[in-house]
Amino acid sequence: METLAIQGEIEILTVESGDAYAAALRRNSDLSVLPAKYVVYPAVYEDISSIIAFALTQSPPLEIAVKGGGAHSSTWASSNGGIVIDLGKLKKVTLFEDGQYITVQGGALWGDVYEVTAREHVDVVGSPLWFVGVGGFTLGGGYGPLSGQYGLAIDNMISATVVLADGRIVKTNREEEPDLFWAIRGGGGQFGIVVDITFKVHSAVGPIGCGIISYPGSELDQLLKIIGVCDWNRIMTPQERFTMSFSRPAPHFKPSIVILPTILHDQDGSKSREVLRPFREGSANPSFYNIGQVPNMLAVSHSADVALSTAPRSLVIRGTLFSDFFPELLLTVWEKWVEFTEGNEDVRASTVLWDLTHPRSITGVSSADTALPVRSPHYWMAVQGRSTTAISIKTAQEFATSVVSFVRSKNTELSGKDLGWFLNLTQGDESAEDVFGTNLPRLSKLKAKYDPKKVWSKGLVIDPAELT
Ligand SMILES: Cc1cc2nc3c(=O)[nH]c(=O)nc-3n(C[C@H](O)[C@H](O)[C@H](O)COP(=O)(O)OP(=O)(O)OC[C@H]3O[C@@H](n4cnc5c(N)ncnc54)[C@H](O)[C@@H]3O)c2cc1C
């Protein structure tokens, strides 16, 4: 460990730091790893201002990347030869005494938050998985298991503290720096380093019904009828959510449809039994049905641990939004996915995931209220391209790109609405217009105000407007 010749005592790793440096570069996806010149761990907010000044006064200036949880499958939180500001020492989670709000530091994972909310019997809108960072997830919008009831993570933000490109540390909320508060709610990491966020707290949603319902691929037609036209839409409320994935589970690796429900306030299992009846006793026959109760979101967030522990670490994720579970759309994606994963063991672990969250709360906010533009009824889907060999990485990347492009254009054709891309599941090569839509002009003006020199040059980069 050496000390940067700048103000503050900041832990810094370089290639000379050996194993610690290699560990510091590690990300959720091996495809996200880049060899940074420095990885630094600020422990107090003021140190971040010093690090920015140091990076910008080098000749040439160093590229700055910011790492929250390191879950994004791009290289946005990594740098080739620049400096990574790793927020891993800023993970404090503080529940207010009145139990109404919680302040979370920018480097915390959702698992850190759920440890506290589980202990205190409260809940917040966060990620379904514990290892996703609060920073990246929230700044990109944040769709979670509680979104049906309480909206997106950004809809639950009360205030934040941000270190700006010029080193100033500002508090932002609806009254203080309101423009900045608007921009960070959906604009990503383009406006500064968000060192803490205060969220609304909700009463505990546990016990939660969750588990697995699995079907052979031959049941997809029937399943889409259940989801789309009859039972599920009729009985579903904002307290029920599920993801449906196309995957090939071991040991048979046959194309399967796996449904992972999250049923909030499921006291004794009777609610799960009732609302999931169409999936158990309807026209589609599950090959496996195992639903139980867990106490809280901490447990839900660990429910995929076993499956993910053996998943190939070369992962690319792309996703998009869609308006409805159109059978024509889903059946075509199924065919594409079966064909792609058939007979190619290298990419067999690739999956397609569809999220079914009740859209009511998400649509209760207008497009102009936050930087995230899509507030008409919608759902989201993601392709997780996983590869076991270097040679198949490109194939998996191309598959992810082609499927999400198909979903976007087919959904536009069937619904008459182009919903663009969803920031949290982009890779950075999309156009800013397609991600921010009608909010882009305001975001460009605010980029000119808060980061005219594009110090934040990683991610879905917004060009500053030319101010006259
Ligand atoms: C397995 C998996 C499941 C997912 N499921 C969902 C889901 O259900 N819903 C959903 O909405 N998204 C989901 N995502 C997407 C996820 O929200 C994004 O990848 C998000 O960016 C991850 O945040 P992070 O802090 O871990 O990312 P990082 O990789 O650390 O960072 C991603 C980007 O955010 C920036 N950033 C991170 N923290 C800060 C900060 N404090 N201040 C400023 N900029 C910051 C980084 O600079 C970078 O540009 C999922 C991702 C994975 C891998």
Automatic annotation (TrEMBL):
Keywords: FAD, Flavoprotein, Oxidoreductase. Residues 31-204 form the FAD-binding PCMH-type domain. The keyword Oxidoreductase applies. The keyword Lipid biosynthesis does not apply. InterPro entries: BBE, FAD-bd_PCMH, FAD-bd_PCMH-like_sf, FAD-bd_PCMH_sub1, FAD-bd_PCMH_sub2, FAD-linked_Oxidoreductase, Oxid_FAD_bind_N. Its cofactor is FAD. It holds the Pfam family FAD_binding_4. Belongs to the oxygen-dependent FAD-linked oxidoreductase family. This is FAD-binding domain-containing protein. The lineage of its organism: Eukaryota, Fungi, Dikarya, Basidiomycota, Agaricomycotina.
